[in-house]
Write a structure and sequence with these properties.
homodimer, alpha+beta, Jelly Rolls, 4-stranded antiparallel beta sheet, 8 helices, DNA-binding
Chain lengths: ~190, ~190
DNA sequence: CGCGACGTTGATTTGCCTCAACGATTGTGG
DNA sequence: CCACAATCGTTGAGGCAAATCAACGTCGCG
C-alpha cells in the first residue's frame, strides 16, 4: 500500500496517532510518472517536496556550457526537492525528472506549513531527516575530493545496487563527476579482474 | 555580549520569550580556545554541538594516506559539530580545532534533547538551520565538480573575506580540494592582473 | 641563532577530459 | 512491423588541469 510506505518512513523518527496519520495523508497528492517526465523544471518556482514511493528520480543542474550535472538520485523511500527554490521561492536552479516510471507523493508548501503548525512533531521529523542528509552530503564532498574515480564508482554500486544497471551510464558518470567515456573505461577495467 | 550573539542567531528563525531565553542560556558552556586547541578529536564520541562566538574553527578528516581534508570552516556566528558521531554516538571520523584564538558555546547532547522537549520551537530552528546547510552543501558539490580551481578560489575569497589571509594557505587548498602548490600558483597568477 | 612550518617556483607525471569514429540498442513514425 | 534516426556505450589518440616531487627563500619562535 502506497500510504503505508510513507507512514512507515515517517515512523522511523516520530510516532503518530491515527488522527495525525489521517490528517497527514489527506494532504498528499499521488502522482504516477512516466519515464522522462519532469516534476520540476529549471526556472520554475518549487512549491512542493516529493516522497518517492517507487521508481527513481534525479535532480540535476545545467551549467553555462549546457552540461548536465546530476546532484542527487532519489529512489524508493527517499525525499527529494529543490530546497533552495522551495525555501526562497526563487526560480529553481535544478530540474527533477523520472529516470524510470515512478510513483510519488507531492506535498505542497502551503500544506506543509499547516502540518508544522498542527503537528509540531513534524518539525522534528524533518530536522532529523535534514540532519541525516547533511551527513551524507559531507561524505560525498569528502569522497569527491579525496577518492579516485574508480573507488567512487565501486562505492556507488554498493549504495545503489538496484539502479546502477538500469539507468543510462552517463547519469552515473555525471553523479560521480567524471565523463561517460572515462566511466566506460573504468567499467571495462573492473571487468578484467 | 556573547549571549546576545547566539540569541540573535536563533532569533533569525524563531522568537523566544524571556523565560525561554533564560533557560536556553543556562545550558550553554562558554569556552575560550587557544590557537590550535582541539574541540573534538578523531576517534572520540561527539557529545555536543558548538556555536562559534568569535574566531574560526575547522572540521577535517584524515584519509588512509594520512592526508588532511578540510570539510568545513566555521567562523563567527556559525554552528559546527561532527554530526555523524553526534547522532549515532560512534567514534568521530573528523577532528575539530581552532585555527585562531576562538570563543564558543558548547551545548551537550543531553541538554539539547531537554531543550527540544521543553521548547519544541527549537526543533523548528534546527530544522531550518540544517535545511539551509543542505542547500550550501549541494552548492559546494556542484562547484567542486563543475568549476575549475581558480574560480572556486575566487568564490572562496568572497565567502570568507575575513579569514583567507589569516589562516595557512594549505588549509584553504585542502578545503578547495587542490594541492597547496597549485593554490600558490593560482594566487600568483591572479596577482598578475 | 637555528630549527621547523610555511609559501613559492619549476620539472615531470598522471588522472581525467575532449574529440572522433564505430557498433549496439532503443525508440519512433510511416 | 519495419526502417531509419536517435541515443547510448565503447575504444583510441591527443591534450590539459592539477598532482607530485624537489629545491629554495622566508618567517615566527624556542
Amino acid at each position: 500500500m502506497k500510504e503505508e510506505t510513507i507512514i512507515k518512513n515517517i515512523s522511523k523518527h516520530i510516532s503518530l496517532d491515527e488522527e495525525e496519520k489521517k490528517y497527514f495523508l489527506s494532504i498528499l497528492h499521488y502522482k504516477k510518472l512516466e519515464k522522462g517526465e519532469i516534476l520540476l523544471k529549471y526556472g520554475e518556482i518549487s512549491k512542493s517536496q516529493f516522497f518517492v514511493i517507487d521508481g527513481c528520480l534525479r535532480n540535476y543542474s545545467i551549467d553555462e556550457q549546457g552540461k548536465e550535472h546530476v546532484i542527487a538520485f532519489a529512489c524508493k523511500d527517499w525525499w527529494i526537492s529543490d530546497l533552495y527554490s522551495y525555501i526562497t521561492e526563487t526560480p529553481a536552479e535544478h530540474t527533477i525528472d523520472a529516470l524510470v516510471p515512478a510513483e510519488v507523493f507531492e506535498i505542497m508548501k502551503w500544506d506543509m506549513e499547516k502540518v508544522f503548525e498542527r503537528i509540531p512533531k513534524f518539525e522534528r521529523f524533518f530536522r532529523i531527516l535534514f540532519q541525516n542528509s547533511m551527513v551524507n552530503q559531507m561524505r560525498r564532498i569528502r569522497q569527491v575530493m579525496s577518492v579516485p574515480a574508480e573507488e567512487r564508482y565501486k562505492v556507488f554500486i554498493k549504495q545503489y545496487p538496484d539502479i546502477y544497471l538500469n539507468i543510462p551510464l552517463k547519469h552515473i558518470a555525471s553523479y560521480l563527476g567524471i565523463s561517460p567515456e572515462f566511466l566506460s573505461k573504468i567499467r571495462s577495467k573492473i571487468a578484467h579482474d
